[in-house]
Amino acid sequence: MRILYFLVMGLLVFNGVNAQIVNITDSNFKAKLLKSDTNTYIALNSLGKPIKIDANNDGNIQISEAQNVATLWISSSNIISLSGISSFSNLTDLDCESNKLVSLNLDGLLNLNKLRCSSNQLTSLDVKNLINLESVVCRSNQLVSLNVDGLSNLTELDCSGNKLVSLNLQGLVNLGTFYCSRNQLVSLNLEDLLNLVDLNCGANKLVSLDLSGKLKISNLICSSNQLTSLDISGLNIWYLECSNNQLSSLNLGGIPSLYGLYCNDNLLEFIDASNLTFLNGLTCNNNPNLKQISIKGSNKLNITSCNFTNNPNLVYVCTNENKISEIVDYFSKNGITGVNVNSYCSFNPGGTFYTIQGNTKLDNNNNGCDVADTNYPNLEFNILNGTVSGSLIANTTGNYTISVQEGMQTITPVLENPSYFMVSPTNTVVTFPTQTSPFTQDFCITANGIHPDLEVAVLPITRTRAGFDAKYTIIYKNKGNQTQSGSVNLTFDDAVLDLVTANPLVTNQSVNNLSWNFTDLKPFETRKIELTLNVNSPTETPAVNNNDRLSFTAVINPVNEDEQPVDNSFVLSQLVVGSYDPNDKTCLEGATIPPSALGKYVHYMIRFENKGTAEAENVVVKDMIDTSKFDISSLVVTQGSHPFVTKISETNKVEFIFENINLPFEDATNDGYVAFKIKTKPSLVVGDSFSNTASIYFDYNFPIVTNTATTSVLQSLGNQDFEFSTYFNVFPNPAKQVLNIDVKKQIELSSISIFNTLGQQVLVIPNTQLTKQVDVSNLKTGNYFIKVSSNKGSASGKFVKE
After folding, report:
1. Domain DUF7619 spans what residues (predicted)?
2. Is residue 546 domain-shared with residue 679, that is, in the same domain?
3. pTM of the prediction?
């Protein structure tokens, strides 16, 4: 009986001991556990210290030993099954990546916070009951189902590289990082994910992606889907990758924190990445429909971090002025042609800018400026920021807006005749961002003494063609500080020009003369006289032919004596043309000026015409002034066809900016112009010439470069009646012994004169009806002018004596 008792008790003890051993069926799993010690970092306790799981060295894992483990790292161990893992009831962190698991039952691990089971062969994973989970990384399996329902503590979920076609994310209110790329998802409901910061849903089959309310999102990768639209406006995104979709538009407005943008391989037509002040890189290659890119204001953009290649329809890139050469160089190095690069997509400085605005008035009654006083048009402002200086000439409304960048700005009004007026305040100093933008500063201009001063000019609104009507505008302006009355006279050759219409009506008309009376022309008031004249054809008598010159003289006659009568008269010398470029530049004084005109104003007119198939929203006329020939500080705007402002920068760059004019493309209304005057340098001498060319930008198109308007300083040889090259050719040129004169058309010569560059006559041949050669062997080597007089009038040309 005693023997039987001891035998029963022994069996009970043996079975009790066996009941405390964890049943681990996978030998690799058990071997990994048994390898744990204080140096292997396979198992950690709750204090984060490595431990030996098999503490009693019996070659087994007791439940009590399993319960000592808080962290278990058993990756890359060829484990097929984790049977027995449920005994590790205090486990908070499990890493079983890169094994051969086909299933994973974690029931009972209610304390588990982190699970990493990537790179196995799992087809399903259900962790919905593990309510303390904060991180689940199960990428690169074969999951067709994943149950994370209601895990409100979950902050990280990475299920990339599986076979999921759907995924329920309801209740994951604290999820901040969510990666689900390389699955087969056709939709994602992110509604509950209000704390989402990092989302990668690339390489799925998504046709839409609703990110509304995801105000915390910073990194977004949604490449390689089937998205046709993506609304990210107002989100605080730092990194965006939306490549390989079907996006035709992308609104980047309101996300100034964007640092990296990848939108290549889409159907985008326009990329507006302007004013993204943190943007470092832009990859937008392989967009076959892409026409325009705007990166103006994205001051930190690194061109080496950009890819603009393989966009066959790209024609325009808008960037900061200081980035233009870098972008042009990029296109050149990559063999990309046909892309226009400039800064004219907007007319504010790139990046963060501030505004100074206000109104300028002329104090009519010397009692301080008020709303009843006259607005002062086209006031010039000098803008000084440290050592950088520029100018802005406001439009005709009297209101001005100046956009500047941070720092101290000194704004000073500049008058054409500063002795005529006093300005209050004389300037204003504004520091941004210390002061609030927009900063408002009005200027009041008051008469200083009595200064009557009028001016007049004639603008050829259309080209003059033989047999057609030509339109002209006479501009007269009160530059002084006294209200004026008087008359305007226009003298022209009545034999070849006939008046068609005039507005206002002519006051008096006589042979070769039209006149208009005017009254009460107030200081800084400009008035216009618009008239149409018909030009004789080549078959009329007298005939007008191509390359003839027509002369017009306008005179303004004030009642009171004028302080500066030099600009009370104006002579327009206009060339008759046949075919013509509608975008041109003309010096209204003609091809020559006398030495007496040096240091005084010459007048230019730049005409432009929209020959496109749509309205031109903006037109910019850029003129690079040769400061060795012109005094750029003297530039004064005369007139424009549409409202515009003038910007002067970089010492010699003048930009006439016609913003939002929507210039039509229909032939009757598609024309415009700007006219200005500028003084030549008084240091020029006889024989010098000055040239000027303008570039005209219609919206985002390549600039149209006008002709070069060249004017020579020449001792007066009289006004030309026709263009020399129309009727004559001189050869050889240079000439050594004999200068031959070839008469191209029926014309009778009367005399030939030769002048040196000082305007001195050095040779004259009277009665030259039959002369075809001139002996120049006795002339000194140098440049000469030849003047030919004929029954058609006179004309002058140039030649060189060797």
Report:
1. 581-711
2. yes
3. 0.73
